[in-house]
Amino acid sequence: MSIRYGARSRPGTMVSTWLNSLVSGTVPAAAAGYFGGGSGPVTTVDRFAFSDDSRTTLVTGLSAATHSLAAMANSGTAGYFGGGYAVAEVTTVDKFAFLDDSRTTLGTGLSAANYTLTAMADSGTAGYFGGGYAGGRVTTVDKFAFSDDSRTTLGTGLSVGRNSLAGMANSGTAGYFGGGATPTKVTTVDKFAFPGDSRSTLGTGLSAANYYLAGMADSGTAGYFGGGYAAAAVTTVDKFAFSDDSRTTLGTGLSAATYNLAAMADSGTAGYFGGGNAAPATDTVDKFAFSDDSRTTLGTGLSAARDSLAGMANSGTL
Q1: CB within 8 A of 20, min separation 6: which ones?
Q2: How many CB atoms lie within 10 A of CB 239?
Q3: For residue 25, what are the CA distances in angstroms to 1, 17, 20, 28, 98?
Q4: 5: CB partners within 8 A, 6+ apart
Q5: pLDDT, mean over the chain
Q6: 72, 119, 153, 174: least CB-packed within 10 angstroms?
Q7: What's the rounded Cα separation, in Å, for the pair 57 and 112?
Q8: pLDDT of 56-76, one tens digit each?
């Protein structure tokens, strides 16, 4: 029996996956979220177990100390950290297998060295790295097929070149890139329909022009863009209902005005905004319960205060 939560099968699918694993001799990876890289720069990847929100730090971090990178995940299989700034902008894409958190680096990275980009994913099919700064602000969207990690670049990119934007996705349906700088801050939210990758731009964008924000999603239900820098750092969290792309702004935002933060989600349960610059950099992780959008702040935050990091998650089967 499978219990449906939006477009996601859980916890029935998780039980089914576990039972199948007994037959195959494999054990499914435990659901967890990851915050990687950031100011320093650092190679650090912090892992938060969704069962109890406990934090561990991976023994093997990024392949190089990197900030201003992006991340996305093929939930249940592997997560990817791509681009960013090490000693210069990079094309590197590091892949972390969720089964044992081991890291490999893809033979084919981004189509150009790029930082202050973002990412989102159609879990089970492909992940997308979009926008950023690669010698100038770009409209580029690179697509990585999860079947073999091969890269293509979409013929239709963002509606305008911009960096310091955020991404999130309704897996199986569409992905969204929101906000950023052109260099002027924008409210724009571009939507890419899966699997054809056609782009439209939402009639209703962010509640305010904003950059250095973060995005995460409760796949099948709604996506959230939070924090960032408008006229100043903000606590704002905008919520987009996937049924009609309508926007509301949560009554309770972040626990502190923060920009250059990251986000990830345990789809079906809760989303997390972590780190960022809250004058100064912070280790705070705010958790939003998807049942009612209420916010709590984790007792254990990041392993160190840092901004310009990236987040992704293993939520099981989406």
Answers
A1: none
A2: 19
A3: 22, 12, 9, 10, 16
A4: 220, 221, 268
A5: 92
A6: 153
A7: 30
A8: 999 999 999 999 999 999 999
